[in-house]
Amino acid sequence: MSQYAKDSEPEATRRSASDAESSRASRGWWDRNADDYQREHGSFLGDDRFVWGPEGLDEADAALLGPTAELKGRRILEIGAGAAQCSRWLAAQGALPVALDLSHRQLQHALRIAGDDSGGPVDLVEADAGALPFRDGSFDLACSAYGALPFVADPVQVLREVRRVLRPGGRFVFSVTHPIRWAFPDEPGPEGLSVAASYFDRTPYVEQDENGRAVYVEHHRTVGDRVRDVVAAGFRLVDLVEPEWPDWNTQEWGGWSPLRGHLIPGTAIFVCTADGA
């Protein structure tokens, strides 16, 4: 659930939302809420840490993009980069990352964290994930930790764009809220453990203002939908990772919590390769 302007509580509803409406809502929501988001979660995310989700699975341990030692010199696109914490970790491994985000304010936080080093080592790009401003085959790898895909009406378009800018054989790894969570209330306590909606209902969750204008949109895809989307975009799915909640992580993050995390998955990570020419 969003954190819209404190003096104007939006109406939560379920209705259709076009790709243009979803994109506009996402840009506005993240621009408004970037400060609160970084203030609340910045210490967990770190300045240069690559975390795949609220469970705290770290790329330094998981190596889903490949062995860390082999990242050096690789051109890597991060989609929905936020303040570019993941890209900053990649740069520290010797990679050549580009951090892309729809939100201008999120990228301003990336510059804030970088400090005086605003010219590198991470290139920042403000753009929509459905229309990537890069040539075909520009990148060796791509990644997205909860970025873009949950918020777009046409995920296949985003996946096709990622496939286009990857070289043949390149890998794309992305994490999203685990689809099973759609059936449960977005609550960290016991009330979040009882099914309250149909897992198969794909109607988007929308928060709208008094004029019916969407200010936050989230789209649901089942696990099967995600797999079919990956294949339709020309990728081969090589792994599906469902991180378990570790004992060391005692934090709550929205609907994610140790209570729920020990019982049902909260994150799904899709590991894909762009095989062929």
How would you concisely characterize the structure shown here?
This protein has helices at residues 19-45, 59-62, 85-92, 104-114, 155-165, 223-232, 258-261; strands at 11-14, 75-79, 96-101, 123-126, 139-145, 166-177, 205-208, 214-218, 236-241, 267-273.
Tell me what you see in this structure.
It contains 7 helices and 10 strands. By secondary structure, it is an alpha/beta fold. A 7-stranded mixed sheet has the order 4-3-2-5-6-10-9, sandwiched between helices. Strands 1-7-8 form a 3-stranded antiparallel sheet. Helix 1 runs parallel beside helix 4.
Helical coverage, percent range: 25-40%
- The topology string of helices and strands comes to EHHEHEHEEHEEEHEHE
Residue stretches low in confidence (pLDDT < 50, at least 5 long) are 1-6
* Sheet/helix structural class: alpha/beta
Total number of strands: 10
Estimated share of beta-strand residues:
15-25%
> Biggest β-sheet: count, sense, barrel?
7 strands, mixed
Features:
277 residues, alpha/beta, 7-stranded mixed beta sheet, 3-stranded antiparallel beta sheet, 10 strands, globular
Helix-strand layout with pairing:
Elements: E1 11-14, H1 19-45, H2 59-62, E2 75-79, H3 85-92, E3 96-101, H4 104-114, E4 123-126, E5 139-145, H5 155-165, E6 166-177, E7 205-208, E8 214-218, H6 223-232, E9 236-241, H7 258-261, E10 267-273
Helix pairs in contact: 1-4
